[in-house]
Design goal:
The complex is a heterotrimer of chains A (423), B (983) and C (94). By secondary structure, chain B is α+β, with helices and mostly antiparallel strands. Chain B has 22 helices and 50 strands. Chain B folds into six domains: 166 residues, Roll (Ubiquitin-like (UB roll)), CATH 3.10.20; 197 residues, FAD/NAD(P)-binding domain; 118 residues, FAD/NAD(P)-binding domain (3-Layer(bba) Sandwich), CATH 3.50.50; 146 residues, 2-Layer Sandwich (Gyrase A, domain 2), CATH 3.30.1360; 89 residues, 2-Layer Sandwich (Alpha-Beta Plaits), CATH 3.30.70; 100 residues, Elongation Factor Tu (Ef-tu), domain 3 (Beta Barrel). In chain B, helix 9 packs across helix 11 and helix 18 crosses helix 19. The radius of gyration of chain B is 38 Å and the shape is elongated. The model of chain B has no long low-confidence stretch (mean pLDDT 96). Helices cover 17% and strands 35% of the residues of chain C.
Amino acid sequence: MTRFSGWNVFWQGMTGQKGWARQWRDPQPKSHYDVVIVGGGLHGLATAYYLASNHGIRNIAVLEKGWVGGGNAGRNTTIVRSNYAQPGNREFYEHSLKLWENLSHDLNYNVMFSQRSHIALLHSPGAIDAASRNYNTMRLTGTPDAEIWDLDRLKQAVPHLNYAADARFPIMGAAVQTRAGTARHDAVVWGYARAADQLGIDIVQNCGVTGVVREAGRITALETPRGRITAGKIGFAVAGNTSRLWTMAGLGRLPIESHKLQAFVSEPLKPLLDQVVVFGMGGSHFYISQSDKGGMVFGGDLDWYKSYAQRGNLPIVQDVAEAAMSVMPCLGRVKLLRHWAGVVDMSMDGSHFICRTPLDNLYLNTGWNYGGFKATPASGWWFADLIANDRPAPMIANFDLKRFERGLQIDERGAGPDPKLHG
Amino acid sequence: MTARRLDQGGRIDRATPLTFRWDGKELTGYAGDTLASALMANGERVLGRSFKYHRPRGIMSAGVEESGAIVSVGQGARQEPNVKATMQELYEGLETRGQNAWPNVRRDLGAVNGLFGRFLAAGFYYKTFMGVPLFEWGRGTGLWMKYETLIRKAAGMGRASREADPDQYDHAHAFCDVLVVGGGPAGLRAALTAAEAGRDVILVEQDFELGGDLLNDPAGEAERGALVRSVERAGVRVMTRTTAFGLYDMGVAGLVERVSDHLSAPAAYLPRQRFWTVRAGATVLATGALERSVAFGGNDRPGVMTANSGRSYLNRYGILPGERIVVATTNDSAYVTAGELAAAGAEVTIAEARNAPGCELPAGVTLRTGVAPLKAEGRSKLRALRLARPNGAGWQAAGREACDLLLVSGGWSPVVNLASHRGVKPEWDAELACFLAGDCDEPVYMAGSAAGVWTREACETSGVEVAKRAMGLASNPPAAGGWTAPIRPLYEVRLPGRKAKAFVDPQHDVTCSDVRLAHQEGFVSVEHLKRYTTLGMATDQGKMGNIIGLALMAEALGKEIPAVGTTRFRPPYTPVAIGALAGRNVHGHFKPLRRTPLHDWNLRQGATMTDAGLWHRPWYFAGPGETLGDAYVREAATVRQTVGICDVSSLGKIAVQGPDAAEFLNRVYTNGFAKLAIGKARYGIMLRDDGMVMDDGTTWRIGEADFLMTTTTTNAGRVMVWLEELLQLRWPELKVHVTSVTDQWAGVSVAGPKSRAVVAACLRDPDSVSHETLPFMGVAPVVLRDGTEGLIARISFSGELAFELYVPGNYGEAMMEQLWTAAARHEGCLYGLEALGTLRIEKGHVTGAELDGRVTIRDAGLGGMASTKKPYIGKALQERPELQRPDRPRLVGILPKDRSKTFNGGALLCKPGAQSGFGEGWVTAVTHSPALGHWIGLGYISGGHDQWVGQLAIAADPVRGEPVEVEIVSPHMFDPEGVRMHG
Amino acid sequence: MIRIPCPFCGPRDHAEFSYGGDGSITYPALDAPLEAWHDAVFLRENICGRQVETWQHVHGCRLWLKVERDTMSHEIYSVTPADPALAKVLEGGE
């Protein structure tokens, strides 16, 4: 395998690009693995990678029903941040951000993590106080880059926002995390796939699970179009389809609902916005950044009704466009190039699950709401740790399916047990 | 390309010359021109630069698929980047310029990138730019971000305006029986057929004229005219300059109508564009087909166009696009073009990839068979075409033809994009070498060349028959196809072992080598191919290149095209202005502002407003020279000393009526409501199902079966929906009706020792507010001195003797005038939200800052209001163990140890010397208390104030300031016994 | 756009409605044990396909509705008022 480096880009350029091999193999699945991860998205691939790199387990398959990264990995707005404040989330996302910071080097793949700052606009003294509580929490829990900016500083850093004094919601300041930013979503998928493959992991595409064979409290085998596969341990990491697989395993109900979240990209433009900007007022929610290619990448709320369909509907398109115009009125003549939707597992408190299940050898990774992309490295890291050691590390102790019975809701928004309200 | 305008012919109006500017140069065109045709007629060849290599690009087509002539239009706040010159109508004064180039598109220093092309293969950026060259040493993202700054500057295409878009956009809605998309022969016939059968039909056409390909054919003009007239006579609603950009669930289409983009001085009342939501019973997609090119060396050079666009420039715009023209084709469709160009005076050679043409050779045209384009020579001007002929499975050189224009027809791709939005899978037709839409299980039908029907007559028949099908009638649409000799599928021409820059996606500079490299590296699924190479992600969304890319991948895999698959098209079909999608819901109309009945009155009194949910409420009423701080402290002090009046109209008000109303409230609130006496109000807390506090407020019993519930301003809508849900879904047996009456009432709070005197002065019967008639928490109907009937309740948020007085909304100002006159006699004041905050913080009353959706009734210090005698919503789940922990943060009062100091809301409360981690609690609200003479706050801290007696805490606020030592006290910091409000 | 045939107002865009949630849940009695409430409030079948769900015609008649809908195709099979008495009235029963 040719290492990725400037030298090799030069050398391969000189020699006709002949030396680049497949970035990951296309193996026939074996009939048995020590660990099978179902789901070749970001979390599944990262889990496999860390199982091998952190825990020395090599006999692993990742089963993907389509092509790797075809689900939410390739449908998100690529924002990476750790400005979560609730215990549990706070440490988890900060760990994730730390892993992101060196991910390109760890994977030898440029995932283009651009620490360009995440700027949440604030419009009232009350909002500044509420944000300060969260950002103070970040400061005191080891995140040095949490800042509250006043209007002057914001204007200097982000000149093209709507600073009109008579704006519907005049801006008063911003909560800023400077280490946050964006990454190239597909590159992260491919980077993990390539690195996992180099560690001997079989990434099997076009191999969806069609049946789960159970015996007492265990899964004995998975049925796939490419044959029956047995495994010592099995991890589900199939955002959007968790309940379908869960039902296939005969396991009843889960504290999640599948909803669709739309994303939008404009035509490419010369640099217009250098940060990630987030707006939330008047029941509206909007986030925007500019990709390295130049497209404005933006999104808003869920389509508000449960859905497994990867296609959006017009009302949210309008809502998001209205918010876009409210935040950046210069976008009026910028044209929307594509919009699409991903199916997200919305949980009852807006937080995720990385946990054991009622079956001895089955482990579950689900409930990422809007947050799955940024969580990728830590999700893989700790899911691998759980699978390898068969016990939840303190970092994920409360991300189990029983937390609601205990009375623990890790609810960043305080929205309550309605999955569509968490974002 | 040496194009010139002909003296006659075309659909342009030579009597109406139009002046426009291109890169600062003044040029002339005619009415009926597009920007592209006008530039072509003026001899402008290089109109754009490509994304990566900055190669010179000219006009490649005459339609929405344009990938070369992409320019910026307008100036200042109206600058629009990334406009396809082929779609921009010319108008007097049109201002245009090239983009993605410096100093200009003709001489672009960025073209130096082309020299390094060999290093810039697909995905090269994933392999480097991570660390220190050459071996990517280092850690972190620092170096990448330096590279990124340079990459971002080089990337992007046009530059967006930095100013707010000054134009208006409209939203409009329509319904119809049949929506026909596309106004070519098939669409016109379909619309006519359906309309004549009595259906309500909307016909949309993205062009500014109806006719589709008929517009390119002078001989068909009479027929076109007749057809258009019949369509109009039949009552079809015709919308030109309108693009159906997306199909959504249940027959809903999104359209964008370009209302004034073609006008030099649009009337002020006209929007720039209109976004239509159309709900159609059935949809006929007569969206036509797009001609595709072939990949060969230099196929992106200015002077290489699709064959049919050559015909379009000749017949529609009256331009001879070249003098020596090679028409390279794989099918019969280009022969007419060749013949017409020859007849117009060009020297035309057909390079036919097949061994024999399928139709007659037009007069004056030279034919070479069995040859295909190999390499276009020239830089910004085409000089010659090198040809190749088949040699076994590959190709070998077959001479050179000097030419100044190359027209290529690699076949036709039906526009199946809109069907794809509905999840229809395109199916490969090997004989026609194109994808056709498969069956759709919704009433969406393909007609004409969009269904792969190639001849005009058959397209018209297709329109008629498909319209019948859309109406549920028996029909027999013609089969796809129609050429006498089959197409020779051809996607790439190259000599073995030779390097050539052959473009698959010219806009994104994706070459054949890039596709093969993607294959070599394992990116073989169509979606991986697209994402790794960026093929099809440019502004044409792969209209030009997708099929070629698929074919190359199929070849590399040794498979057939259908085995490789196709990507799903996403809306919009062509890019849509964000302004159009937002419509009028911008500026002041974004999330429309809610105003209380006293809004204008408050403003007249000098109120500074603040947002409260969607409402504007008075924040403070500054006197001369007063700051916010001066004003609220004065207001709060005045309330405590004499009297203050505050607009509380935005509080949610819900009429809860019916024989079971008391029982209903008893279930919704944690405390008892069953026995609330008529004429009494009670403060209540309601929980969510999960046991967390949802909202609070007072509910007044006005009659046996008549209650008025008040809610917080922000939760009013949510509580209303919640009550309706409970009544209709969970307890339909309860005979209760709820009605939101928030907007019916204007409400004020009159608070302070003099409040009774002020209110009494305004009432017909001043005794009706005496302590005996209206005790604490009493409610009564009242009549103002002017006869206005209202409701009064003796309730207090401020902790003072206080009344809430409600009158019908329209009488609000009149009530205010009376109260304000009376208050003036007592040197009273108006007070806003900030002073309201001060008063309630002093009293330890909670609001949204404390009830953040994560606190239980016990956390909020209101555990005493949780009945143990009856069940209520949320009771079961609040018993969960984590919610019972004694160390949960509880509501407390907070005082600075050094009373001269202040601290901030949002500060964390920590143990001294332990300013790390999550802390012990947090500060929710802070104010300067005039009653206590120093700053005070509310907040939550582990265990509540009992656990902190004699212990200091630190209010740590690292994001804003220095830590402050604070004392933790009971939240009831002022008049804890409530003597003042009961008095 | 989903078009929902409101039994009171007729077919309308789904933007006029707000989605409630899983319509198959039966909420326990207020004094039912914690476990029953936990299951009703926190657990979902999350069906891919045809399911019964609740919607409110919040910008219309404000009826809460039981809607049988496919969560993949979004096709709607039936819409009835959630309140059985109202359902009966609108069916013309009483």
